[in-house]
Every structure is written in C-alpha cells, then in structure tokens.
Amino acid sequence: MTIDLSALKSTLTTQISSKRNTHSLPVLLKTVINYRIADVRESAEGVEAAREEIIAITGQYPRLCKSKKAVASFKLRANEPMAFKVTLRGQRMYQFVEKLFNLVLPRLRDFKGMPLDSFDGQGNYSLVLKDQTYFPEINLDKVNRIRPLQITFTIKASSQEESKMLLSALGFPFAKS
Known about the structure:
- By secondary structure, the protein is an alpha+beta fold.
- The chain has one domain: 50s Ribosomal Protein L5, Chain: A.
- The protein has four helices and five strands; from the N terminus they run αβαββαββα.
- A five-stranded antiparallel sheet has the order 2-3-1-5-4.
C-alpha cells in the first residue's frame, strides 16, 4: 500500500474548500528524525551500531551532530557525538510516514492515539518514540541500548487545523477528545 497523492489532494480539496487553489493546500514538506546517541561517547562501535539502526529505519544515511561547546555541568565535551539526524523528502518520506502510521504506532503499548497539543505555532507536528525496537527493520538480537527517536513533520499550511486535516488524510491516528 502506497500513499496516493492525487487522492490525498482531492480529499483535502473537498474538506477545505472546492474553490481554493490547489497550490495553497497543505503539503508535507519534510520529515526530520533525530536519534540521540549521547550515551555512547567513548565507544566507536556503539556509534556504528546506532548508525546502522537509523539507516535501517529510514533507508538513508544519517548526519552526525556533535556538541558545539563543552558544558561541565552536563559532563559534555566539545565535538562529542550527540545525535544522528536524517531529513526525509519525497518518496522516502512518504514511505517512512506510511510505515510509521500503519505499522509502528499501532504497535505501541496502550496506544489510544497521538495528542493534539504537539503542534507548534506554524502547524508542524512533533512526536517522540521512546523505543526504536517498534520498527520492524530493527534486529532485536543486535540492540544493545534502547534509544528514543524524535520525529518532526514539517507542514506548509495556513493553520493548525489544515495541518491536522493533512495528517488525518494521511492516516495519522489522533487521540479522541
């Protein structure tokens, strides 16, 4: 099952307004995934294992983000690896979104939907998965540490309600209020 963009566009046109220009409809621009690895500062094999996990999850090579300056109270040195960052666009983004909405989120324990208060002021949506092992690509025998993933959907929309309509049309499970 793949996401049909023309059907998505026609669904949004009927929901918002049929007289509206199709170029002003809400659009999912990109999906950014942050994968924190601050716990593997000393071990290069831990960094490599985390890199392989995020490559398996996203299908794209990640960028390593390092600390910019030292902070003694956090036991942080300059240029230490902090996280892997992946920005997905286009077909890979829609494949990841479909996998996340249809496979991963329903596997969460006691899942009743995602909260509506995770939108920012521009209509972007952020969520955190506390466990990377929910993704089917992860081999549970090779996982040495449970790490969280922060996922941000960047949406071009004129309001938060339009962003919610777009995510709902894509199949995002919101919590019932």
